Amino acid sequence: MTKRSIATVSLSGALDEKLRAIAAAGFDMVEIFENDFLSFNGGPRDVGAMCRDLGLAICAFQPLRDFEGMPEPQRSRNFTRVERKFDLMQELGTDLLMICSNVSPASLGGIDRAADDFRELGEHAAKRGLRVGFEALAWGRHINDYRDAWEVVRRADHASIGLVLDSFHALAPGLPVGAIRSIPKDKIFLVQLADAPKLDLDVLSWSRHFRCFPGQGDLPFTSFMDAVKTTGYGGPLSLEIFNDQFRAGSAARVAVDGLRSLILLDDQTAAISKPPVASKLPPRDKSRGAGFIEFAVSEEKSDDLTALFHQLGFQQTGQHRSKAVQRWSQGTIELVVNCEAHGFAHSHYVTHGAGVCAIAIEVDDVAATMARAEALHTRTFYQPVGPGELEIPAIHGVGGSLLYFLKPDDHNWDRDFTPVATERSSDHLSNIDHISQSMPYEDMLSWLLFYTGMLDLQRAPQVDVADPGGLVQSQAISNADGSLRLIINGAAANRTLSARFLSEFFGSGVQHIAFACDDIFKTVADMRARGASFLDIPDNYYDDIESKYDLDAGTMAELRANEILYDRDGDGEFFQIYTHAFDNRFFFEIVERRNYQGFGAANAAIRLAAQAREAPPIGMPRI
Q1: Which residue in 11, 307, 323, 426 has the most C-beta neighbors within 10 A?
Q2: CATH topology of domain 4-272
Q3: Which residues pair with 338 in a beta bridge?
Q4: 287-419 and 433-614 share one fold
Q5: pLDDT tens readout for residues 438-467
Q6: Can the peptide bond before residue 73 be classed as cis, meaning omega within 30 degrees of 0?
Q7: Tens digit of pLDDT for each residue in 514-564?
Q8: CATH homologous superfamily for 287-419?
Q9: How far apart are CA 201 and CA 207, in angstroms?
Q10: If we measure between CA atoms, which residue out of 1, 14, 73, 71 comes closest to residue 46?
């Protein structure tokens, strides 16, 4: 089994905090980053003993910089410096030193010159039973391509000198990775992994600030891993991530994300092997949409919330047999209102106030989904249920909420709920179109990896949305048939609507839910007749829509009169309207799609500005 490792530079905190987080996450090995060691109040023997006590092997000490190709007297000084690092390594208890290619203006070019330096260094290392790995930095002065680094190692021709391959330094500059296949596996001493989003930046800045875990970025990882796999390499796979968000976040959370990314990468690598290798990770099950959404509210707030549901055309269809829990339905949409004074929903309400405390996802195989969740180190949830009540498997999700998993035909509403006879509903709303969750910007990559790792969801390109209080990053993920669509939003600016939601809600969570209909004009007319009111949209917006699209006069008049937003993409059309925020926390959206796949991103700034006008001033207490 491939050993899983991570470099300490990837996490926040002091070295001892990092090591504890790495061990707790379940890594086998660790790379000790030199700066982490230099700032640690303890010696190398202390660090080595700490790693052994935590069950971690040290796979490398890194990096030694500006070694090869230096003129005298720097060359002689470098060998003295390396000997000191060898002393340190032996006290740490590791046998591998990583050297990255020279960036010094004083360095001299030439493959043979570099090979001579490493051959001599190999002799020094061999006397101590140590090894040296050479890595090509993408911004190296003379060697910035792994193929040149390999040629240096090949010409050095020493058993103690090998190559370090780093996915970022190969993939970010767009180097072909096919040459990796011809490198002997015993000459690859370490493989380091880092993904990254597509950005128009110089490679150095890109690397220093925006690396991320495999699966969180856009680099073509499959080709790199396929090439490495072909060599027969069986050494450690180690994460080396330079990321401002990671270094400012929780070391424990980032470490778990890192391990999860390696588990998922191992699963993907098994799939591309020839012949394919059986994965140890249960496969992603097919998701079928949201089975129900549960709201945690107080008894007082429940009346206000259910009144809003009624205005939107929902009917109460069930009352829990033993709890203060109601079922509200329309089309295939199921909403649960929980105002119990005990249990998880109550705890969620006490912490966050009124809001969504749980989402149930329909999947074909619940047992396989839960097995995959446990293999990916998610936190499972269990709460005692009453006699005869349905027990639904669950894991912890965004902001301390729950994700339940159930089969499409296994709701068993009649088991837990007594049916409630209601007036006949028009059922204008058909299904849940999408669910939008807001979170701190630095948490977005974590939850993106969580959702795409757990479920059969694919990413759409990230969108930047202009909020009156700053920029919001929005990432949509959905399954193949669109039955499950999630949007995760993050904002660093603290005056955006997303950031204000986090403050009001005391953490991440569902900020809005979109319901789909077949005829938005009839649907909204029915809702208005029931007493519903919607977000005010300025006339300026409709003047622009009228000039931009060739809509007939009747449609334009209905858009204006009902304050419905409109977007078009090719032949696809999208109509959307928003309720006012409930308790200044969350809101609902009504949409109609006509061969349209997006989410109305062009209208987001208009909606956010309208909501900002309605929001109370920051710091004003809620009435």
Answers
A1: 11
A2: TIM Barrel (3.20.20)
A3: 296, 325
A4: yes
A5: 999 889 999 999 999 999 999 999 988 888
A6: yes
A7: 999 999 999 999 999 999 999 999 999 999 999 999 899 999 999 999 999
A8: 2,3-Dihydroxybiphenyl 1,2-Dioxygenase, domain 1 (3.10.180.10)
A9: 9
A10: 14
